[in-house]
Amino acid sequence: MAPLTLSVDVKSSSVSAPDVSNRVMQIPQLRTSKGFASVNTQDEKPFDFFRTLFGKEQLFRLRVSTFSLICFRFDDAEGFIAGGTAGVVVETALYPIDTIKTRLQAARGGGKIVLKGLYSGLAGNIAGVLPASALFVGVYEPTKQKLLKTFPDHLSAVAHLTAGAIGGLAASLIRVPTEVIKQRMQTGQFTSAPSAVRLIASKEGFRGLYAGYRSFLLRDLPFDAIQFCIYEQLCLGYKRAARRELNDPENALIGAFAGALTGAVTTPLDVIKTRLMVQGSAKQYQGIVDCVQTIVREEGASALLKGIGPRVLWIGIGGSIFFGVLESTKRTLAQRRPKTIKESKEE
Question: What is the dihedral of CA 313, 316, 318, 322, to 10 degrees?
């Protein structure tokens, strides 16, 4: 349960400072932070993404104590911790499947897929996945909560879609260079992440680290939005039907379904993104449209579904692990707060 806070209404600019002080003493209002995936449209301010992201909302609240303010910030940090943990676990467990998928998609004309070095680039990739996953969930959670409070109940899916896209956009700043280096190592172009960064930067410039950025957004923004929307909506529906919170196996099962379905639907976008990222300085494709036209002309339309099997398997299992670990980590972190608050009161 989140810490109780003492809120002060400062909307009226016509009231003098002493009057405000009197109001604080006479009519204190106790509020609790809303629970995960809660919906409330009463007496809430319009959504402001930048205020949510940078934590400026504290300027409009007076905390009961300094300790309460620290707990508030810890509550916000839970998303970063849970997201980073879930991302690293998934990447470590399923990296070989991702490597096979990448090599299938990068091969032109059905070339031979070499299975050697399935863990190539894992260490460097984790160095990027950790902050990227933490940033995604750290942005997604508060954005989702604000949108759920702003939108009516029947538009909760829109809130989840929007929050997923915003989280993906923020995380793309870290995800794209990580993905470029990872996929080029998976296809045997480099042997280590540091050498990959140096050579890409020297031959292609800083923009080389963001090769295929637009195609990445074309794939990941719909992917993040759809996957998290499906997951959240299924969880909300299940909770209403069962009239209880979900357990870890149920979260994992719903996460697997959401991941597999979204992975299948976005496979063509993933193929385009992979081709643009691994082409390097050769510039075989002159953009997204040219990439699609060239693939269909030279390899047939079915080439846009290359790697769909490993991708669905990888994201299905990954969704199960990610959401299972995410919810478990969030619950573990949340359980630590009531104990700490109780101890502070006793002091």
Answer: 180
Mean pLDDT, the chain, integer: 76
Phi and psi, residue 48, nearest 5°: -135, 105
Query: Cβ distance 179 to 132 under 8 Å?
Result: no
Q: Helices in 205-307 by DSSP H: which ranges?
A: 213-242, 248-265, 267-278, 288-299
pLDDT of residue 102: 79
Residue among 260, 252, 253, 258 at smallest CA distance from 327: 252
| CA distance linking residue 108 with residue 187, whole number of Å | 12
Mean pLDDT of the region 58-62: 37
Structural domains in the chain plus CATH codes: 78-338 (1.50.40.10)
CB 328 within 8 A of CB 291: no
For residues 169 and 166, give the distance between their C-alpha atoms in angstroms, rounded to a whole number: 5
Tokens of 172: 């793309």
If you average pLDDT over residues 254-261, what whole number do you get?
Answer: 94
